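Input set for joint prediction.
Command: fold jointly, output tokens.
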Amino acid sequence: MSARLNRTNVIAAHGVLILYVLIALFPVFVIVINSFKSRRAIFREPLALPDAESFSLIGYETVLKQGDFFLYFQNSMIVTVVSLFFILLFGAMAAFALAEYRFRGNTMMGLYLALGIMIPIRIGTVAILEMMVSTGLVNTLMALILVYTAQGLPLAVFILSEFMRQVSDDLKNAGRIDGLSEYRIFFRLVLPLVRPAMATVAVFNMIPIWNDLWFPLILAPAEEVKTLTLGSQVFIGQFVTDWNAVLSALSLAILPVMALYVIFSRQLIRGLTSGAVK
Amino acid sequence: MTQPKRSSRIRWHIIVFLAPAVLVYTAVMIYPLFNTLRLSLYTEVDQARVFVGLDNFRTLFGDAIWSDQFWNALGNNFWFFLIHMLVQNPIGIALAAILSHPRLRFAGFYRSAIFIPTILSFVIVGFAWKLILSPIWGIAPSMLDAVGLKSLYAPWLGREAYALTTLSLVSVWQFVGIPMMLIYAALLSIPEEILEAGECDGITGFSAFWKIKLPLILPSIGIISILTFVANFNAFDLIYAAQGALAGPDFSTDILGTFLYRTFFGFQLQLGDPHMGSTIASAMFAIILIGVCIYLFGIQSRMRRYQF
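tokens >
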């Protein structure tokens, strides 16, 4: 082991990684520090930290006065949380059926549900919009929730059924002997055991749903149902010359995602590196 | 698993378990997908839907106004994909190779930090880079000045020749974390004995990477390539956030996603046309399908997998 690591190599490795971390974080850093500065300071010393003289919250004041960011945030929250709930519930139920029971068409059903892993739902946007218009769901959060649930289900079923195959049969059969119904076996015995896999699925789906711009733009562009991503996009487009406002809006949009990342990063990285997506 | 005494009856619980997922998935994903393919065969005449066969495709590929835009978008999309393959994936593999060194300190910190751009939305990434590269703000020129390369600076996003490459690199910057993580996982799963065996034969350091690790992670590289392909040919958000629906300057950053959006949804003076939109969506579907098939039958099935 030690022969493979010598001093120069270690220093070079850290050097490369630190350089790349700087590249990765620099834009975020620049945006956030400048959002706390006055307009003059933004242009005069873009790379300086805000100090007593240049500190200003004028951008945030504009954003909070002009944009309805709390509403956007609330909408994004509702859409993300409800979609995740349905993805996990429906996904786990279907995964259980596929993993647990032998019935005709099991493999076909698995393949059918797996189709959506590779084919992006965006291809069907024209017909989705038409359907939402005819059912009156356009400009409702429900439209987004339905689309994201459908989009998240294939991968959820795929990952969860892998995990459910590992739940011991003895446990389930013991439950059956004790007279538990199949529903109780699922909700009481199996679901608690696959909780780590559910967390992985949740984290995988959370970021794309929160960050999506395409479907909010097409299905729910009205003011009262705008998500945070669409809301900040529209807001920034309108205030494009007000640098304070733009930088503050960007920082406000970064904040919730960063908070989620700090909370869930261990879960996310464990999911990505455990090979759950292979 | 099956219960013999009940097997003659319909097992309702299976249907109950499957129904919600299958219904939502079918109604919101599969049905609209095929409906979109079907709509590409229709057009609108006097507010009535008329079946026109493959006329829309003839327009898309034959009419110069449409076909120029289509081939431009497709070509740009291939360039976008190529840059991801040539820049994002090698950088991701290199970072993963460094991170997977045993006993490297702070590996967890580096991993989390490098992954941060991936979690940000396209809107944030697009605008942030637009501001940083902007000649008005001057961060990019003054940083190049600091290393004596000021002459290299150009307003990249505003020049036709550079805009697409610049945006591709911004996208690479954002998503490098994904290949890094997947390759990192693949590298960690290589058993220590194999590397030690190589060490006994004098294969260490770089040659260990090229001769032992790289062949073993080829399947993961294949998966990353197809994921990149599907994501790139369905991309839209970054271009829209940075350059708007017109994918300026002069359509030089237009890719299939933005072309579809403009056609289907309309913008400024052009009215939205759901049928031509469906036609473009069908073309995208075909392209993605071809890519996935090449991967499944041409690459994945030929790749050797090693069982440890």
